[in-house]
Structure formats: structure tokens, C-alpha cells
Amino acid sequence: MVIPEHRLAEVFNEAGLPEVTYVAPREAKQIVGSLATAGKHVTLVGPSGSGKSTVAYRSLVKLGLGASKVHSFSGRTYNQIESILEVLSLEFGVEPEIGQVEEWLRVFDLVFIDDVHHLHLKARMELASQLKLWHEKGIRFFMVGIAKTSDEILGQDPELAIRNDVWRLGTQSDDFMLQLVGLGESALNITIDDEGKATAIRAAQGSPSIFQAICRIACVDAEVLATQAEAKEVKIELPLIRESVVHQYDGRYLAKTVNLARGRRQARSVHDTYFRIVEQIAANGKEQTSKDELYHKVVGSKDASKKTQIRNSFYRAMNNLPKVIEEHGLSDVLIYENDTLTIDDPVFRFYLDHLDFAKVRAQVNIRRVGYEYDVAVSFAGENREIVVELVNELTSRGLEVFYDFDQKGILWGKDLRAELQKIYSQDAQFMVICLSDYYPEKDWTVFEFEVGKTASKKRTGEYLLPVVIGDESPSIVGLPATVGHLALNSESVSEVADLVQDKLSRLPLPE
Q1: For 114-166, how does the pLDDT look when each residue is reduced to its tens digit (9 = 90+)?
Q2: What does DSSP say about strands 41-45 and 141-145: parallel, antiparallel, or unpaired?
Q3: Contact 91, 122 (CB under 8 A)
Q4: 17-31, 108-122, 143-157, 421-435 — which is least confidently predicted?
Q5: pLDDT score of 144
Q6: CA distances from 215 to 53, 132, 178, 212 (A)
Q7: Which helix (H) or strand (E) holds 263?
Q8: Which of 239, 272, 419, 464 is the most buried (most CB within 10 A)?
Q9: Residues 244, 253, 259, 368, CA torsion sign
Q10: Residue 7, Cβ neighbours under 10 Å: how many?
């Protein structure tokens, strides 16, 4: 018997469409049926690595829908464009006018949008609205994207639901994986023992993409790059998975994991908190982790003297977590809602399970020095408007700022003198004093300055950072004229915030 010769990339390939080892998932027949039904739009959703693009391609081939009958494009190409009409006009080279666009849409049996979740939200909502109308005109779309449901891509609309068949690909069974690897063994004339197959199946956690990657790298390690003239045994061992396979996904996930562990940009005081949160998620092996569980892991074991600061930092970090996930491009794989963090991508779960977390620690460069706030601001009430601008600029850079109006709940019912004395003397890395003609006339600002002045004498580095509001700096007893200051008549509020951030970034590492 002559075995047809295949290149390895045709057999095991996590990045492309496997030609030889395609195994139809349970949903494949129904997807083909939906595509064959006149007047129906079709949406295929699922996590990264679930084989959506492969199933979509195979379904189109099965129906004889080639390039002349299907217009295909990726949502990634147009992720900044807010109108679906503009997206389609660019695809067809016409004006963004409904008549011209529809003329081209009718040329094709189907319009295929891969990675539809990457389209701008406004473009997706406009697409959902148009789909109802295009259904009646015989214009059909096939949309593939990463999501748990089509609602996450196209929104909730009962009228669209009856016109749009939705299919979800999830994880695949052990039998699916055994069929896949069996096809690969036959094509390459290799054997993988039962223990190796079981190791690969456990590691892949139902993801065809991960399983393909494990099998391909095992073949490369065994120097199997094409069909073998004589049968050859290929080993799959856990160390290989941890080192080589994880390396394949570093480009996709390492930088995002590091940025998530850093938190919001350059926020100094919460670096450690975000790092501990991500560290716990990586270590627990779960798809879902509750806020309560993270609290007990990150805060629960700390000694009483530090627990309040760490607890406050933890809650701030969790409140900001949705923004951090969005900022660092992890919305496709992480969801935080209802006080539960969900990893919605088995490939990312696999990556965290096998990642050497020391690689993340080395890049995060943890520099926490024990202060709850990066900055505490002291100011007269008459200057609140400009101070609010400064606080907003600081927080937009990810800095933790003590500002009285943000802390009403914490201060409520407490001895304000005792609480403010603690904050201005112990809890902040720097104290920004907003100096104006009103500042030396107010009892509270005088009190805050005296606390800050006393605290500054106990610090090894500078603590008081004067910012002048107005044309001239008022005379403040205890603040020498030689102390460097910034003035808002020569620096913008944004520039002052940049300088504060720069000052924080230059602090020495702890011993």
C-alpha cells in the first residue's frame, strides 16, 4: 500500500486550515443545513481555538460556494470604522450609499465576515439593523466571531433572531481528538502511544487548536516534517508541552498577560495587587473565579497592620478590572461581571496553566513601596474646580489619588482630624499642595500642611510637591521659598500630571 505523501503543515496546523485532519464537529451538519436554507443569515460563535474558521470554510466548500459566489473579508481590517455601510463601500469600492452597496451585495450568494467581533460596536449594531431588511431582499450574511452568544456580537433583537440561525462551537470530546490524531498518524505514517495521546488530550482541554499545536510540535521534535517512509514513533511528553507549545502562544498572550498584571498604565500603588490577582488566576486552573475567592487569596492572609491598605487597593483594582481588560485587548478572552472573572478562551486557559509565571514577574517589575495612595492632594475649597481637573488627569494615568470627595464613604462618621492626619502623614507617596491666596486662610488646609510638613521631615526623599494656582505663590510659614514648585500659569494641568507620573516612575526599587 502506497501512502500519499503529506507535509506536516497539511496534517497538523494550529494556525491554518488543516487539510488532512479535519474532523467534523457535532454541529457541522446543522451549520451546512442553515447555509443551504434560502433567506437565512447564519452566525457561528465560539472561543478562540474552537475551529470556527475551519468549520466555516468546510461548510462553504461542501455547498460548492467558492470565491465567485462568496465575498469574504475580516472584521479586523475595519475595527475603527463606525458604519457598516462604510465598511462595505470600502470592500466594494463604491460610495457609502445603501443603493450602491446593495447592488454589489446582490452579486454574491453570501457575504462572509470572519472575526466579525472585531468590527466597531456601532458598525455591528448597524449591521444587525440592516440584516432584518436584507433578509427580505435575499441578501445573506455568514458571520463568524469570538463570543459566547450572537447577542454579544449583534445585540438582542427578537426580530433578527428568527432570520439568523446561530450556532456555537465549544470544546470537543476525547473521541473527536482521537479521530483527529488517528488521521494524522495515518497521513504521516507515525504512531503516538496511548499515554502520549492522553497527555495531549488533557492538556488541550477540548480545544482543537491546542491539540493541533501539541501534535505538530511533537512531530517537529521527532524530526517528522513529512510522511515517513518507515513507521516512526512520536512521543508527547509534558515538558515538551510546557516549553515548546506555550512558546507558540507567547506572541499572542504574553504581553497582554504582563499588561494585565501591571494594571492601569503606570499606577504604582496597585502594581502588586493586579499582579497577585493575575497570579492567582493563573495558578488555580479554573475557568471562573469569584471576587470572594480572589479576596481571600490576595488579602486574607496579610497581617493586620497592612490589611486595610491591601483591602482598599484590592477593591479599587477589582472595580477597575473591566477597564483594564478592555485597555489591554483582553475582552475576547476575559469577562468580569457579577463579581466573577471568567476565562472565555480555552487557549488562554491552557497558556496560563503552563506558563512559567516568572516570565511575567520579570517584566512587571513590581515596585510597590507600601503606600495606599500615589498622591494625596491638599487644597482650598475655592480651588476645587481646577483641582478636580488635576485629579482626573492623575487618575486617567492610573494613579491612586486621595481626594476628599472620592472618599466620602470612607471618611463618613470618622474623626476627620485623626483620619486625615493618618492619610497625609502615612498613606501617600507624595502630597501635592495646591497653593493659592485661599490656602493659608483655611483651618483645614493649614492643618493638612502642618501634618505634611512634619511627615516630610521623616521621609528620606521629597514628599511635599507645591503647585501654585494663580499668579503668585502665597507666603506659607514652614514652606521655604527655595522649595521647587510648579505653577499653573506656566504648566498645564496635563503637564503637571505627567510630571507627577514621571516622578513616581523614577523612585528607586525597594531593597
Answers
A1: 989 888 889 998 998 899 889 889 999 999 987 654 455 555 566 677 788 99
A2: parallel
A3: no
A4: 143-157
A5: 93
A6: 20, 43, 12, 5
A7: none
A8: 272
A9: negative
A10: 14
Distance between CA atoms of residues 441 and 432, nearest Å? 18
Q: Which residue has the higher pLDDT, 487 or 372?
A: 487
Tell me the C-alpha distance between 244 and 218, whole Å: 9
Determine contact, residues 222/234, Cβ cutoff 8 Å: yes
Instruction: Give every CB contact of residue 360 below 8 A, 6+ residues apart in sequence.
Output: 254, 257, 258, 261, 275, 278, 279, 282
Grid coordinates representing 489 are: 500659569
Check residue 432 and give its pLDDT. Answer: 95
495: three-class secondary structure by DSSP: helix
Rounded to whole angstroms, what are the CA distances from 427 to 90, 380, 420?
A: 55, 21, 10
SS3 at position 23: coil
Instruction: Please state, in angstroms and rounded to a whole number, the distance separating the CA atoms of residues 84 and 123.
Output: 5
Mean pLDDT of 98-104: 96
Q: What share of the chain is helix, strand, coil (3-state, %, to 5)?
A: 50, 15, 35
- How deeply is 319 buried, as exposed, middle or buried, from its count of CB atoms within 10 A (0-12, 13-18, 19+)? exposed
**For residues 387 and 377, is the Cβ–Cβ distance under 8 A?**
yes
